[in-house]
Every structure is written in C-alpha cells, then in structure tokens.
C-alpha cells in the first residue's frame, strides 16, 4: 500500500495485521481522490478518517493538501500501523489520533469538512452514524451502496470490485 499522489506520492504505508480492518486499495483511493479533486474540496480542508486502520485515506488527503486530519481507530494493531505511518511521513503536527470507538467519539467532533468512513466488514449502523455526523461531505466505503437518509443527498455511488464508495452531501 502506498500514497497515490501529492506531497507524499509513492511513499509506502504500513498496513495493520489481521482481518479487523478493511484496507482501501490504491485503485479505490485514486478514484475517490480524483472525484474529490474535481470537486475542489480537499485543499485546505479539515478531514476525519473514521475507522482509520492504517490511515491511508486521511494520509492521502493530507498529501493532497488537506490542512489537518483527525484519525479515529480503536484496534491496537491498526493504531500501531497508523502511528508508524504518521511518524514516518512527519505528519505529527497535522494529525491527531483518537484511540476510541467511532460511534462514541463522533458526537464530540467539530470543525470537520470531510469524513472518510471505512468501517469494518458487515457494518450495519450507517443511519445512526450519519445522524451523528456534523460534516458537509461523507465518503462512505462499504459492502453495498450507502443509502442517503433524510438530510443527506447521494452525490454518487460506484462499485470497485467488492467495494462500494458512496459520496454523501449534507443538505442545507
């Protein structure tokens, strides 16, 4: 796994061991960030990488000009890989790691523009999570397309192999 483009393009990332995280492939990350780039929303944004795993999504955002990233992860193996990746790239001043449960932490989240949400396999709490999120844009990675609940608009949903990426925008 590597950073696709930007300041850290080509740099390798450490992935957590085990099957408790869903790694986002290089192909999926490239497609996601091509879409976000065409929208012009990453540069200068504050982002959150929820269920961060290795931190690949948040690190990619930082590499492409995001101002800061809040990483939320509770798995010990993933936290170890995430912290190693942040240290190796010298991102400590632009990254904050929260070692806690996403659903417990999200109600306190403030000042975030984009949330990358890549939960473990078989996650079924999308409506509850989206009700808690106070952000303008969500990039949801799941086994199936994520339906837009009330108050949200589905901008697009694309399948990449077994993974669906859905962009959701909060309605004004």
Report on the architecture of this protein.
With 172 residues, the protein is α/β, with parallel strands linked by helices. It has helices at residues 26-39, 56-63, 76-88, 102-105, 126-132; strands at 46-50, 68-72, 95-98, 114-117, 137-142, 152-160, 163-170. It has a seven-stranded mixed sheet with strand order 3-2-1-4-5-7-6, with helices on one face. The mean pLDDT is 93.
The structural class is alpha/beta
The CATH topology turns out to be Rossmann fold
Overall CATH class: Alpha Beta
Number of domains: 1
- State the CATH superfamily name: Vaccinia Virus protein VP39
SSE string, helix = H, strand = E?
HEHEHEHEHEEE
- Low-confidence stretches at least 5 residues in length (pLDDT < 50)? none
CATH 2nd-level architecture: 3-Layer(aba) Sandwich
- Please state the overall shape, judged from the principal axes of the Cα atoms: globular
Mean pLDDT: 93
**Fraction of residues in helices?**
25-40%
Kindly state the number of beta strands: 7
Percentage of residues in strands: 15-25%
Rg for CA atoms = 14 Å
**Major sheet attributes:** 7 strands, mixed
Count of helical regions: 5
């Amino acid at each position: 796994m590597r950073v696709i483009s930007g300041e850290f393009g080509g740099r390798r990332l450490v992935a957590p061991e085990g099957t408790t995280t869903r790694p986002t492939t290089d192909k999926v990350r490239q497609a996601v960030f091509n879409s976000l780039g065409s929208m012009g929303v990453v540069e200068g944004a504050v982002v959150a990488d929820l269920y961060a795993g290795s931190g690949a999504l948040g690190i990619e955002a930082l590499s492409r000009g995001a101002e800061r990233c809040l990483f939320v992860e509770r798995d010990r193996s993933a936290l170890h890989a995430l912290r190693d990746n942040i240290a190796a790239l010298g991102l400590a001043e632009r990254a904050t790691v929260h070692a806690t449960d996403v659903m417990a932490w999200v109600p306190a989240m403030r000042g975030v523009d984009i949330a990358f949400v890549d939960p473990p396999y078989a996650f079924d709490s999308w409506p509850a999570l989206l009700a808690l999120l106070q952000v303008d844009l969500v990039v949801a990675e799941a086994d199936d397309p994520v339906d837009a609940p009330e108050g949200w608009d589905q901008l697009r949903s694309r399948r990449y192999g077994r993974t669906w990426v859905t962009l959701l925008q909060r309605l004004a």
